[in-house]
Structure formats: C-alpha cells, structure tokens
Amino acid sequence: MKDERRISSLWYAGLAMVTAIILVVLVSQGSTMSRLSNLGLDEGGFRDTYLMFSKSEPGKGYVLGRRDSTIRRSHKKLSGGKWNLVEIAPDPDIPGSSFWVAQSKRINRGTVFFIPVTGVSDWSYPFLYQFVKKHRRDIELPDVEWSRLFVNRIYKGLYLKVSLPFDLRKKDGGSGVLREIFTIEDNRMTYVSTRFSDIPGLYTSILADGVVPVLATPPPALSWLSQRRPADGIMFLMSNQPPFTLSLLPLPVSLPGLFEAKNGRPPATFEDGRFRQWSIEAHSSNISDPHPFSVAEMAALDTEFEQYASLFKRELQMHTEFHRSPELLEQLPERQAAIADLEPSLGKL
Description:
Oligomer: single chain
Order of helices and strands: HHEEEEEHEEEEHEHEEHEHHHH
Number of strands: 13
Shape: globular
Strand content: 15-25%
Distance between the termini: 71 Å
Radius of gyration: 25 Å
Helix content: 25-40%
Structural class: alpha+beta
Largest sheet: 7 strands, mixed, barrel
C-alpha cells in the first residue's frame, strides 16, 4: 500500500512538473501570451473597444467597452444590441492588416470602421481632425478616434475608429432618405450612402430630375482641415433635403478603397466636369493666414498635440511589440505630413 501511495505521489509530482514545463513553453519569450503580458494594457491610454462576435449568428456581434465585454453569471447575453460585423483581410500574410466594419441601423450607431495603424497614411491628421471637432462645435463632424482594439477579448493592436454620418430610419423619426458621401478626383466621382452602399439613391434621383446639388461655402477651419486630408480626392456630404447642399467631409480614410476591399469592386462612379469645379470652389476660400485659429487656440493646439504625441507613441510602441514590427517606429517622420508647416509650433510625433 505504501508503495502504491509513493507511486501515486511520484506520478502527480511528475504531472505537475510536466504541466509547469508546458506553461513555461507557452509563455516563453516571444509567445503571444508573453507579449500580451508585457504590454501594460491596464495603464492609461487610448480607449478600448471590444468586438465580440456571436457564437450562434455568423456575421453578428457586439461593439463594447472593456467593462461590458465580460458577461456575468446573472446575465444571459452581452449588453446592447447586435451589430453586423465583417472582417476584411487585404493580405492574410501580413499580421495586423485586417480591418473591421461594424454596421447597425439602430439609433446613434450607423457604420463604423476599425482601421489598423498601418493602414492610416498620416498619424498626425486624426489629431487635427479631433482638434477642429472640439474647438468648432458648429461644424458637424462624425467621430474619429484612436482605439485599442480587442476581438473576442484578444488584443489586435492600435486602430483608428472612423464613423460615417448617421441617418435615422423613418420609424425612428428620420426622413427615411439617406445622405450620400462623394469622393471627387478631377472629373470623376464615386459615391456611397451613409450606410456604405452604392445602390442608386438620392443623387441619381435628383440627377434624373435635372437638379444639381448646391455647394455650401465651407467654414475656414473646415476648408483648412480638408486641405490637409491625407487620402486621395476631396470628400463631400450631400444633404437629403432641398437644395441638396454639399459640405466638406474630410475623413482620414479612402471610402472607395474601403468599399472595394469589402465588396471586391469599386463603388458606383460618375464623370462630370462640374465635379472638378466643386473641388476648386470648396478650397478657394483659402485664408491668407496660415491657420484659422486665435492665439489662444494655437496655444491649446500646441499643448494638446504634446499630450497626443506622447500617448500615440506609447500606444504605437505596444502595437509594434505585439506584432513584432519595429519598422513602424521608423515610419514616424514620413507619416505626419498634415502638420509639416506647423512643426515650429507643434514639434513632431
């Protein structure tokens, strides 16, 4: 009996040793678990976003903060309604290149993109966008912000969260007519609705009636921001009410590029000589001063950028460590063209 107990004890000790060895291997230097444990994700940084895919409904899921991403025993499901969630992987061989599209018709949701930091050509522009949105509250701009992205609670890296303008459904009190977003390059225009669809809608309807959208004179700060937009083309948002006014919408991403990546084809395209004229007029209100801000606002710009630069570099460092892509840090100088002429005041990222 004693021998049996001794053999049993040795067996359990051996099992514990093997388990310990396996754990050491799993968290060895360079493993995903090890990299995550060393990132310091609990420290202050950009806001966390959790995409939680449904286990029972393909293509459905939740967009949550960290607190709501953990289901409690007393709850049968995660909080909030479900979104349509799609992952697009332009190059499966490149780690961290995937982006996600979240869509919902529910109130105050709409269409939201999560673009990896590698897919954002200018890392200083989101700061300028947020600055104008904060200090010019009379200008309606959808949300654009950096976020730490987690998918099914797994850290994916530093992502730019970009929202499209949102239109209420008729049953929620809206008109039921979607506004449309134009991207214009020379005489060529592509368009999508605020629900990221190019199904013939308002523009084709008014065009058939001989109606031409009216270009609104942009506020100086909006024109200034649009001229620093890093993506190709000039973006406009067309109102869904007569006289169907066009206003600048300088989002930091290429909607035609995202549309083609998601759908495998470019969005609907028109050609018209008036498109080029719209672009010229939208930026013709170019102010003689280098910027449209007061002395106090420029001081705030300087202070807020210093905070942004410190935080961004810290988050980028975590992203590069997780994806083993230190070359991204070397790209800092070339990914801040939007602030090139402001460097004497702002410094650099």
